[in-house]
Records
---
Amino acid sequence: MSQKVTKAIFPVAGLGTRFLPATKSIPKEIMTLVDRPLIQYAIDEARAAGIEEFIFVTSRGKGALEDYFDHSHELEASLKARGKAELLKVLQATNMDSGAIAYVRQHKALGLGHAVWCARRLMAPDEPFAVLLTDDVILGEPPCLQQMIEAYAETGGSMVATMEVAPEKTSSYGVLDVAEDMGAIVRARGLVEKPPAGAAPSNLAVIGRYILAPTVMQNLHHTQEGSGGEIQLTDAIADELAAGRDVFGLRFRGQRYDCGSKAGFLQATVAFGLAREDLRDEFSEYLDDIRAATSRAAE
Ligand code: UTP
């Protein structure tokens, strides 16, 4: 029986250069899909999976992120006084319990592995933990992390969320070398970060959801710079395999949007806009019009 996972690390200390100039003053995680910041989607997913403690690895310029999680008493009182019950509910759903959130600082963006390692003192030495990258927004039922927690309850070890990508895309991801394919779950033989074109061991790419054995944090004490000159979480997970411990991949059910890229963010905006009952009709009519106008212009 695997140990219960109650802590999650949210590394949010990256520079977000792909969204400059916006990210000069707005943390990427506060950018909104329709009306909810990216971070809220990750928090909701973690809560649904039973996470109780939320650890943010932040950096300079991420103050807006901390403010976002403060209770907004004035706003709540004002909405209450004006009888805006629905909006009040929306606002209160973002409230976090006192003491449930911790912030640690990554002083230099040395890589995802380094960001996770910055949270080491908030972890018990024998405690498995989840890592969620807020760039990856995933529509899934049940939510992706919950699917992973359920699978992990059977497998133990460490588990990464995976999805099949086109062969020409593998060099943008961590990629699994598959030892055993059991359907939804695969057992890994190896794990390589951003393999050069044509050298990927499979087309099963790792995306931003992880359940990690406590030994991964120990591996990070020694992890050297890897792909892109950064300290890679993938390398610390691969060290588990070298030490004879299990790493699994889960082909999660759902749709993942890479909101760390402009194209992915735009796709997610359209998908989430169309998924909203209050916006769907007007928005899809607009999309139809714009498509018709574009194809007329192309003729
Ligand atoms: P990315 O590779 O997307 O980097 O990081 P980034 O800095 O956020 O964005 P670009 O590429 O410059 O546009 C993946 C995740 O790892 C975190 C990021 O915040 C993001 O959630 N990260 C990355 C850190 O917390 N620290 C780092 O040193 C690197």
Note: The two ends are 62 Å apart (CA to CA).
---
Amino acid sequence: MTIRRSFYYITACLALLLNTAIVNAEMRWDMPTPYSDSTFHTRNIRLFADEVLKATNNELNITVHSAGSLIKHPEIKKSVRRGIVPIGEVLMSRLSNEDSFFALDSIPYLATNYQQARKLWQASRKRTEEKLSKQGLKLLFSVPWQPQGLFAKKKVKAATDLQGLKLRVYNKYTERLAQLLQAIPTQIEAADIATAFSTGRVDSMITSPAIGANTKAWDFLSHYHHFQAWIPKNMVIVNAKQFSKLSKDAQAVVLAAAKQAEERGWQMSEQETNEKVAVMKANGLKVVYPSDKLHSELSYIGHVMTKEWLNNVGDEGKSTLAIFKQL
Ligand code: PCA
């Protein structure tokens, strides 16, 4: 090998080594989420991922897999916990299957506007983080859906109008609500709503204007009852071990971006409420407000469910509600 040739050879090897070092420095995280690309939660998460990529100088590259395309909603939390994926998004109250504490934001008429929802989150955040941390999970941020309303094929004037209807539910507490209304609860993922209606598996649902508009609820329903009954939240969680493998700088970037995403998400949610109600109206859904009778019936159910929640959760429930009431 001539001197010139060995020079080229050494340079090529160095370049390869350097390249490998750069590739190793870049961490790729797959992130499953349950909701569609048009959902504000997903848009917010994509902005979060973009910010993290930029602010870490490409050290952490998060790829968002929306609408349950990588992992289905019921499996996401378990998958993050086991480290199958490092990060994911779930509806917080889905965890009420394992611990009722996580259902606090899904109790009718406990916190019905954004101000109250913020207080409820403020009162429950620490305990939520502790519970997740015991499972090796770190909470990054939590963003609310819009106040929940009822979609049906007729105007519902009283609870009795819901008796025997197949009501689409999305967690243990909406299932309980359906039972108390003497409706038939049917658990359906948001991504499957349109199919569930077109095949007759369900004939009514309680959800947000965002989901109503994104699933084109006017294709299969006629009335939206703007109850504003509770404000459930999604959360983004990360496997704590995987998080600790990031450089200290990257960890700080993720936490800062998470803080921003939480604030931005709360604003997006609130701002979109009236926009999505207007979209539904423009497409022919009749937007109605609950009658006094229906309102008081649902409030009563809210009391019953609060009591049940307290019984299920015990002292930590009592202390959390006490903090909420003081805020
Ligand atoms: N959207 C989620 C939960 C609540 C909401 O507004 C859903 O319908 O599945």
Note: The longest strand covers residues 137-144.
